[in-house]
Structure formats: structure tokens, C-alpha cells
Amino acid sequence: xxxxxxGWSVADPFDLPEWLGAEELRWTTxxxxxxxxxxxxxTGDGDHELGLDMLCADVAFPATVVSEQQRHDVHQxxxxxxxxxLVRDGRHAVAVPLTRWDADTGCEALRRFAKAIxxxxxxxxxxxxx
Length: 130
Description:
Blueprint: E1 9-10, E2 25-29, E3 37-38, E4 40-43, E5 49-56, H1 68-79, E6 84-88, E7 91-96, H2 103-116, E8 124-128
Parallel strand pairs: 2-8, 5-7
Antiparallel strand pairs: 1-6, 2-4, 3-5, 4-5, 6-7
């Protein structure tokens, strides 16, 4: 269900492209700042690419980035060792219970994302541009 205020809806990991489970994956970002949304992309061995961002779900100023229900769901998933995957305008985001992105939590979120889509974490590399 799409939240009318934020435009985010919960994505089903099983609706993601099949190539995600068949190739070595690499997540890259050019951003390492403090924005609520860190744009990234997930690429495979071939020419495959999926827009996959990191979304800090606890950001509330100057405006909230997700609904209270989605924020609750992000925290609940994280508490149970999972991650909530959201989608808006065709771009996916891994939602994390943070107000400010950091590399350690980003790597943990991607490990949980790999688990959610049935991919061994060893099949996923993270590239951060400084």
C-alpha cells in the first residue's frame, strides 16, 4: 500500500528481477553524506542494474520521509534482523532506522537485503566513493 504523504510503498522482495539471485552483485554510491536518501545502484555481472537507495526512515525535519506506520515497520523489521524494502517511482530503497546514514549500518542493511532476496551475503560487494 502506498503512503499518500511520502509516496513510498512496501516492496515484495520476490518481485525484484531474477538476475539478482544469479549474479555477483555490487552496490555503489557516490554519496556518503547526511541526506535522508542516499542514492545507490545495484549492478550484476552483466548489464543489469537496479536503482537501490538507502533511506533513513527516522528523519523528521524538515519533513518526515515515511509514514508513522512505515517507520514502525522499519524498526520492527530491523529488530528482527530483517530490512524493509520500499519502492517509489520505480526506485527501490532499503529503509534503515536512522536519522543519519553511516557506512557500517549501510553495509549491515545490504547484508540483510541480500538475505531478504535469498542471496548469500558473500555474493554482494559494497563500493563507497569518498
